[in-house]
Amino acid sequence: MAHINPIIPETLEKLHLHTAQTDPQIILFSGCFTFTGGKDRRSGLILTIPLCTEQTSMEELSSTLDYLLGIPSDKCKARGFTVIVDGRKSQWNIVKTVVLMLQNVIPAEVSLVCVVKPDEFWDKKVTHFCFWKEKDRLGFEVILVSANKLTRYIEPCQLTDEFGGSLVYDHIDWVNKRLVFEKFTKESSSLLDELVVINDSEKSSHELLSELQQRRFNGAEGGGVAWSPMDDELLAQPQVMKLLDSLREQYTKYQEVCRQRSKRSQLEDIQTKVMQVVNWLEGPGTEQLRTQWGIGDSIRASQALQQKHEEIESQHSEWFAVYVELNQQIAALLSAGDEEDLVELKGLQQQLSDVCYRQASQLESRQNVLQSAHEFHGTAQDLSQQLDGLLGMLCADVAPADGAAIQQTLKHLEEKLKSVEGALVGLREKGQVLMDQMSNQTSWSYGKDVPIDNKDNVDHIQGVMEDMQLRKQRCEDMVDVRRLKMLQMVQLFKCEEDASQAVEWLGELLDALLKTHIRLGDDSQETKVLLEKHKKFVDVAQSTYDYGRQLLQATVVLCQSLRCSTRSSGDTLPRLNRVWKQFTVTTEERVHRLEMACSFHTAAEKGDLPVEVEQETYEEVETVGKALLDRLTVPIFTLPVACPSEFVFTLILA
Questions:
Q1: How far apart are CA 367 and CA 571, in angstroms?
Q2: Is 643 helix (H, G, I), strand (E, B) or coil?
Q3: What is the pLDDT of residues 285-333, one digit of tens each?
Q4: Contact call for residues 445 and 286 (beta carbons, < 8 A)
Q5: Could you tell me if 534 and 594 are in contact, meaning their C-beta atoms sit under 8 angstroms apart?
Q6: pTM of the model as a whole
Q7: 34 beta partners
Q8: Integer distance in angstroms from the first to the last C-alpha of the chain?
């Protein structure tokens, strides 16, 4: 609200001067009683009584006090008074007399009396009177206090400088304004009395004029003796009528003056209130907004700023309510249609609307900035938590049981990284919206645009986004490393699995070789075919063995790359070598037997030879057959091997 001059008391109502032997206003000029405008902690007025050695009589003081007590309203009196009796330049007996006078004049209105004692206190023998013991009899509390300790009971801003306070008060100015008020009150009362007399006189004039006219009428038309008016009576009628016309004219002018004064008073009151609203909004209101341009560095900080902004909005809402009321009053005056006031009223209405709408726009803009800042910090916090979770996963040791577990873990990492990327995009969007809103902000202070320095806020937003980008980039790099490691582990598991499969395949080939590859052929041609098939069979086994060896070598390389010392090929390589050795021995034996069988069949198939040659051939066949039989009876390994001895003997006999 507009600043009220503190030298004027709170209320100046219902005052009528008390008659006394000495005019109270003359005593007031001396400053023996003052209403400085200060208030105690109960919102009661403070009455100051500065005493001196040359003191006015108690009767004059009592009369002046009666005059002062007629100034405040009954509501103000109900809150009670705090009286400061300044006895630093007076004697104890005068102080005591003044306190007792307060008891006699206004005991009910006084709440507290503070007697300011001098630095060198009065003689204890003189001040044997104890006020605190007399509280019940006095009706109020009296305390003795030094000037520098008076602030214990009254706020410094409510005390004048003579008591160490900051309240500004000009006693002469206050008295002069009181005199103007008294003069206006006296003249207004006198004018009202005169209007009453004029109103009564107008009634008497009407009666006189009516009587004169009636007498004239009766004399002209009556049946009696004709009445002849005197000259003065003839002259009285137009004089009375002229005076009545003058009275009506003056009364009409007076009514117009009163109407103009009332309208002017109403207009001035509206203008004063408009300026109060405008000055507060352009002054303290704008200053509140001007000092609140931060966005905080976290959700908690932005929430605190939002709460502070709500308090500012609450204060503004009170002034906006005054604006609505004033706007309605101005609209009512504009509808009255007084041409001479239209321009001024429209100017006031436009000025008030411009300032209020401008301030409301700044409040809304600030609220939007704070809401965007809260969303930005919320997104930044969520993103930070996601990055922390992702980093925790990346820093944890990986010990999957199999390739499927690795694939599941890798999928989970990819989903986390995708979520982080989406959150970072959202953070950039919210940060850009926030910076755009701040760039469009301007402050309005005392009718001028004041640029707002948002460099710190912009730097903070960009710093948060850059920090999140760096953290996300580090996590991406770690995800790439983890992805490569997991793919290598998948490959490791696959190599180990395929190497075991190669051992199984080689074992199956060995088992088939021992159990099913036993035929030696019925003739040399069939034996040669079996020998050729056996070579192909050996080639397949060789490829399987080589594939297993390569897989196991890849496993060793992957373990070294992964620094996985706890994993190795285990017993796969010994198993592979053992099975391959068994297969090699078996296949060599199979080759020898097929070759011997081929030699046997070749020798046996020779016919129509000379007797000498046939005998030699028979001996050769018998020798080869026996050697083959002996070979077939020897087991290759502990596995049972079928021995086609009957077949050999059949061939020999043939």
A1: 72
A2: coil
A3: 888 888 878 888 888 998 999 999 999 999 899 889 988 988 888 888 8
A4: yes
A5: yes
A6: 0.51
A7: 48
A8: 139
